[in-house]
Structure formats: C-alpha cells, structure tokens
Amino acid sequence: MTVYKKDNLDGLSDKSIRPAPGMFPGRRNQAGQQRPLHMDTYKGVVYPAQTDAMGHMTVQYYVAAFDQAMWHLVAALGYNPDWRHERKEGWADVRHEINYHDEIRVGDLFSVRSEVRKVGKSSLVTHHRLMNTSNKLCAEIEMTSVYFDLEKRVSKALPEALRNTAQDWLSRQSTMN
Question: Which stretches of sequence are listed as region Disordered (predicted)?
C-alpha cells in the first residue's frame, strides 16, 4: 500500500497517512463474486425529531447523512478539513440524484457506504448507499462534488495526492470487475 507523506500531499499534516481501514475491502460475497470497493463512511440512528407525519426519516436527514459521509470519504482520499481555513479550499456539491428504496423509522440504526465513481480534473462523482442493520438498501445518492476555491468562488484542480488516491480506488475497482 502506498503511504503518502507531507512532501507529496500538497500541505497535509506532518503525519504519514494511509487510506482509512476498510477503504479498499474488495471482499467476495457468498456467491464468490467480487464486491465493489466501498468505504463505511457514516453511522446514525433515526431520532423522533428527524421524522415526518408518516413516521419515517425525512428527506433533509437523508441528505445530511450523505453529506457527512462525503466528508469522511474525501478525508480518506487525502483532503484535510483544515484546508477550509488554511488554504481556503473546500467542496461544492453541484448535482445530487437520490433514489429512495425503503423507509427507516424512529430508533432504526443505519450506515452509509461510499465509493468513487469518477475522477475529473476538479470534481469527483461519488455514490453513497444508506443501509439498515439488515443490510437492506434504504436510499442511495450519486453526487458530483467540485473542488472549490472558497475565496474566489471558482473550481480548482483536485490536489494531486487526492486525485492519485481516488484514481487508485477506481483502478482497483475496475480490476475486480
């Protein structure tokens, strides 16, 4: 596994970093087929205040869970959240496509699994799946997120180390298909 150090990470902290544990699981399912690469990026529970009149979690909280998952995914790829302040660099979501498959209700535990689908010059297309504790798909989103200069309010090229890690993810995924 490649270990990225500060000298090739566009200003990351002094510590060496590795992709988060579980980032490249690539395990086989019960039928012996290779599972897609994903990373567990968020875990939550549905609280009463997060539900609507029909008793299931409202749309805004699905989006919030997916947004938090995205932050954990890009951090695992090499983005340092401190760059928002230190370098005035961050992310702007420009596209969301959400599909709802099953309801989750008060007290239900859930997790989000995330993967990279495409790496552009200044953007990432990611896919996030919200699963219940029975491993049933409840909702999924494909989002396009643009790396952003927070002062100039324009897109900018992805940091090289982040792009390399995301490309590595895609390469490993394509060799498993």
Answer: 1-34
Confidence of residue 98 (pLDDT cuts 50, 70, 90): very high
Residue 26 CA: distances (Å) to CA of 11, 19, 43, 60: 30, 14, 20, 31
Cβ pair 127, 141 in contact under 8 A: yes
Q: Give the rounded percent of residues in the chain with a pLDDT score beyond 90.
A: 73
Supply the range of the domain harboring residue 154.
38-176
DSSP assignment of 79-107: --TTHHHHT-EEEEEEEEEEEE-S--BTT
Name the strand (E) or helix (H) holding 167. Answer: helix 160-176
Structural domain count of the chain: 1
DSSP state of 174: H
Q: What is the CATH number of the domain that holds 43?
A: 3.10.129.10
Residue 15 included in any domain: no
Domain contains 51:
yes
| 147-152-153-155 Cα dihedral, nearest 10 degrees | -30
